[in-house]
């Protein structure tokens, strides 16, 4: 509910309560004054009646005589012991008797004024209980016709209720209009902020209208804040672009020397370390070097270990540079050139090459029949990289047990499942695993890595219009399911 509507409703409710209270006060005041004169006449008539002589006449079964000061007053006396009812002639003329309670119902609460109906006519009645020796035997009723007064009060009540409803509706309509007019600057603020949010246009400013009130000052403050945000954002954006260019350029520049280093190291390995490159026994090399001095053999052994270290570090740096280059492409909005590719050969190629990866866990290739004759719109190299990332990640975090690759299908989605029985993760870590440089086991230090692999995988999945599911439990392994939309499949394979 908008502020405008809430304010209008609150004002309308307060106004309605005020008018209702005022109307009730008017009605009570008019009601009191309307019946005041009538009650005075009735009380005077009651005082003019000799109650004692009335009792004597009832006791002797004589007809009581009443002194009536006003023809509009009606008097009725009921004797409950002998059932005699005496009434004034004007009451007899309209062929009516005032209603009376039964003897069992009479108590002290019946003493006083009450509005009753005798037939179709309303009356204001004063009832007086007749007692003899503290025993109730009769009831004296003095009444006045109150039809005109009741009609007047009914019309007054209808007028007050109608007036309250009409006034509240008018006030609600006018209040809604005024609230909308008064809160128009806030709507301008909302509209401007939405345009900034949807279009990322920080040059947008909120129109300044109206007097220099609280909303006007708020608009000026927000415009000033937007100006500072725009300046800061532009500076950060330029710095971010420069950083992306640096990462991209540095990655490109580093690839060349790293490639040269790796090539030279491989050449030296083939020249100096034939036993390691050909799979021979390292002890045979030691036998060939027996004619050398201990110092020369030590130098050659040290050279061998240094070359192995350089080769390993060069390989690791090449992997890191490739990852940084892939992320630089992602940040730069690189669009992959995709074409329709059969999915099964890609997955089988990954499964075959994954057997050569360094690992401690058993490598299992599960059922891949679900993706037979299934095509996807993809970039083949990036798709292979995607699957290798998940397989390498599974080997890295599975010191024992197995890693399995299989395929499933659901509707127009093909799923590649990579399941391991490794160390798993806590559920709180799952939302962060695709963030750059995030590592779930960082505090434990169980594995090495940069934390960029899954970020690259997520980028590749997004570029292919796919999604990924993760199910894991700490100490019980992790399962990743990469879902890719099917571009084409043989009708013979449809179910």
From TrEMBL:
Keywords: ATP-binding, Cell membrane, Kinase, Membrane, Nucleotide-binding, Phosphoprotein, Transferase, Transmembrane, Transmembrane helix, Two-component regulatory system
Database matches in PROSITE patterns: HAMP, HIS_KIN
Spans through the membrane: 7-30, 160-179
Topological type in the membrane: Multi-pass membrane protein
Enzyme class, UniProt record, top EC level: transferase
InterPro entries, sorted: HAMP_dom, HATPase_C_sf, HATPase_dom, His_kinase_dom, HisK_dim/P_dom, HisK_dim/P_sf, Sig_transdc_His_kin-like_C, TCS_sensor_his_kinase
Cellular compartments annotated: Cell membrane
Catalyzed reaction equations: ATP + protein L-histidine = ADP + protein N-phospho-L-histidine
Molecular function via GO: ATP binding; phosphorelay sensor kinase activity
Location of the HAMP domain: 180-234
Main location: membrane
SMART domains noted in UniProt: HAMP, HATPase_c, HisKA
Residue span(s) of domain Histidine kinase: 249-488
CC per GO annotation: plasma membrane
Enzyme Commission no: 2.7.13.3
Protein name: histidine kinase
Organism: Paenibacillus montanisoli
């Amino acid at each position: 509910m908008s502020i405008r509507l809430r304010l209008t409703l609150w004002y309308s409710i307060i106004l309605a309560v005020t008018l209702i209270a005022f109307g009730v006060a008017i009605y009570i005041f008019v009601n009191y004054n309307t019946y005041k004169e009538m009650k005075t006449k009735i009380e005077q008539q009651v005082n003019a009646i000799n109650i004692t002589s009335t009792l004597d006449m009832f006791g002797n079964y004589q007809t009581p005589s009443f002194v009536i000061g006003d023809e509009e007053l009606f008097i009725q006396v009921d004797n409950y012991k002998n059932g005699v009812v005496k009434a004034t002639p004007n009451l007899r003329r309209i062929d009516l008797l005032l209603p009376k309670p039964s003897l069992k119902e009479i108590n002290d609460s019946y003493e006083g004024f009450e509005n009753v109906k005798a037939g179709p006519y309303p009356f204001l009645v004063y009832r007086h209980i007749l007692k003899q020796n503290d025993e109730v035997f009769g009831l004296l009723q003095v009444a006045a016709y109150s039809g005109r007064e009741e009609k007047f009060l009914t019309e007054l009540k209808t007028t007050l209720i109608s007036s309250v409803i009409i006034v509240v509706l008018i006030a609600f309509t006018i209040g809604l209009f005024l609230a909308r007019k008064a809160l128009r600057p806030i709507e301008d603020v909302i509209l401007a902020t939405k345009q900034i949010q949807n279009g990322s246009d920080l040059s947008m400013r909120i129109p300044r209208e109206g007097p220099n009130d609280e909303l006007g000052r708020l608009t000026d403050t927000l415009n000033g804040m937007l100006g500072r945000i725009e300046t800061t954002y532009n500076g950060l954006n330029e710095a971010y672009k420069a950083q992306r260019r640096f990462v991209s350029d540095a990655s490109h520049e580093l690839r060349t020397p790293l490639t040269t280093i790796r090539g030279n190291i491989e050449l030296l390995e083939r020249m100096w370390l034939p036993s390691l490159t050909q799979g021979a026994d390292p002890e045979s090399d030691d036998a060939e070097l027996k004619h050398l001095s201990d110092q020369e053999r030590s130098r050659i052994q040290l050279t061998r270990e240094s070359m192995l270290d350089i080769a390993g570090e060069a390989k690791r740096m090449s992997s890191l540079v490739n990852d940084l280059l892939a992320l630089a492409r992602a940040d730069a909005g690189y669009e992959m050139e995709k074409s329709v590719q059969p999915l099964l050969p890609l997955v089988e190629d990954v499964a075959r090459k994954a057997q050569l990866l360094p690992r401690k866990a058993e490598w299992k290739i599960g059922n891949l029949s679900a993706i037979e004759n299934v095509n996807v719109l993809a970039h083949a190299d990036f798709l292979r990289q995607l699957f290798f990332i998940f397989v390498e990640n599974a080997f890295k975090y599975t010191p024992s047990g197995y890693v399995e690759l299989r395929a499933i299908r659901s509707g127009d989605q093909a799923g590649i499942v990579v399941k391991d029985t490794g160390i798993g993760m806590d559920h709180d870590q799952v939302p962060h695993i695709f963030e750059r440089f995030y590592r779930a086991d960082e505090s434990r230090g169980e594995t090495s890595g940069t934390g960029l692999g899954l970020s690259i995988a997520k980028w590749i999945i997004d570029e292919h219009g796919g999604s990924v599911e993760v199910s894991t439990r700490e100490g019980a392994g992790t399962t990743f399911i990469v879902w890719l939309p099917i571009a084409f499949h043989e009708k013979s394979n449809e179910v």
